[in-house]
Structure prediction request, 556 residues.
Amino acid sequence: MSEENKVLNFIEEIVEDDIRNNRHGGRILTRFPPEPNGYLHIGHAKSICLNFGLSMKYGGKTNLRFDDTNPVTEEVEYIESIKDDIKWLGFDWGNREFFASDYFQQIFNFAVNLIKQGKAYVDDLSSEEIANLKGSPTIAGTPSPHRDRTVEENLTLFEEMRQGKFKEGEKVLRAKIDLASPNMHMRDPIMYRILFTPHHRTGKEWCIYPMYDFAHGQSDSIEGITHSICTLEFENHRPLYNWYIDNIGIFPSRQIEFARLNLNYTVMSKRKLLQLVKENLVSGWDDPRMPTIRGMRRRGYTALGLRNFATSVGIAKRNNLIELSLLEHSVREDLNKIATRVMVVSDPLRVEILNYPKDKLEWLQVENNSEDPNSGKHEIPFSATIFIEQEDYMDNPPPKFFRLTKGGLARLKSAYIIECVDVEYDELGKVSSLKCNYFPESKSGSDTSGLKPKTTIHWVESNHALDISLRLYDRLFTVEEPDKQEGDFKEYMNPNSLVINNNAKGEPYLKTAFLDNVKHFQFLRKAYYVFDQDSTSDKLICNRTVELKDTFSKPK
RNA sequence: UGACUCAUGGUGUAAAGGUAGCACUACAGAUUUUGAUUCUGUCUGUUAAGGUUCGAAUCCUUAUGAGUCAACCA
Prediction:
């Protein structure tokens, strides 16, 4: 055991304890149980990493199980995307792919079992009537007039429910537990309801469907799940989870709850994300501003970055609000190691190098990534006209500005040192171009000039420059907790969450890289970028994944 | 004002009665042909009040604050 393994979260402690006590023979089986009614988000990623991580750590397995017990909201479309996202994240469930709907017959049999024990009954009351008789947390519920039907009567009625002899809402099957329980979930919860909507897998075979509480734990038990990990809002369901298992007498899976992930400046509920998509406030589930796995992937976040993030947020029972900066840190950490360095000028300022021969062109070697010695090199052109970043030149620099100024020096990355000798302005008085001289003996790698410019700036040669479209993404909301504000959360959307820049100039290698399927880049001194899926070799579109840390521009 | 759960720096997470640690953030400094990376350092914390104990973040009591629950959703 290494040092880091000694710090266990509370679930790992439970698992190690179970292994120590030889519970289930030391077998560990977890599951990830998505409902196929939406796309996976970063919160699901935390759960996926937890469940798969746990089984990998303790020599167990993890099942993928679709919790498809509500045909009204579920669609096949989501199943493929969910599987795709889990694979992309880097996890493999092998052949352990299951559906709660596969267990409908067994779950039905469990219900019959409870009816026979006198622990379940068919109720004719409407949804409203049942709710009204349920009482409140401080007031006990009132029994339904149908609570004491005979076993035979219940058996017949339930079978008739199954045969489709009743309309939707006409009858339900309820567990007979305790109408006075302080836990509302124990007040004769509904086990089955009638639904004539065809199911995406079982078609019209069934017209009665088990409720979550009578399907999830049963599926866990059928699969022999040892640790059924869910989020905190199911804490109050645990007594019911256990009651069903105890009373049916099936494999005792154990439910364990942990705090879901909350990220600031975003929303995480499927319902709200769906709203953003439906109302076209984002371009889709894979909009790079979305906290969905697809969105983050399109944004350029890496699977490893996301997995590391999931690990670093930790597992506990206390409600949390994670700062976006931790996510960004995790992503940068990975990208720093793998991103190919290129030069792209987002706001070009033309520079003429007066003492460089007008028709000369040289190709210079640059490293793909100085962090990775095996990443190789590529070539960039250099000539008498180049672009640099507008913000890298100032007439009247503030103190501590050490980029280019009139009469000042700067190193062009991987090329020469230049000195600014003259400045031209447009009619508005804005700097329109620079005249510089270069120092031939200052060439990168063989510099004998003895000059020590205070900084190195990025640049792009003008004749070979590629026009690049940049999509600059920022946080989707202007407030930390959009859900907790007054009024509609959508009022707090950040109007600048997407800014498109079509003026950027990139080095020609970008096109080669695109054709070579290189994905992640660091645009030197600016940010990490990824090619958007809409790119073609003639029109490169880059999504800004995350900016580089910048300790200079902060003070303003 | 019912039940369940939780409470440690700005954020997140450890410390199983014995030095309050780690990561992120922020701020310094060093290195740097990216104001990045890397390295070093600094700031800030046990919700409150009692109790048990030689000793309490940890155990007990009470208070306070927060979350969840009264869907034929999951």
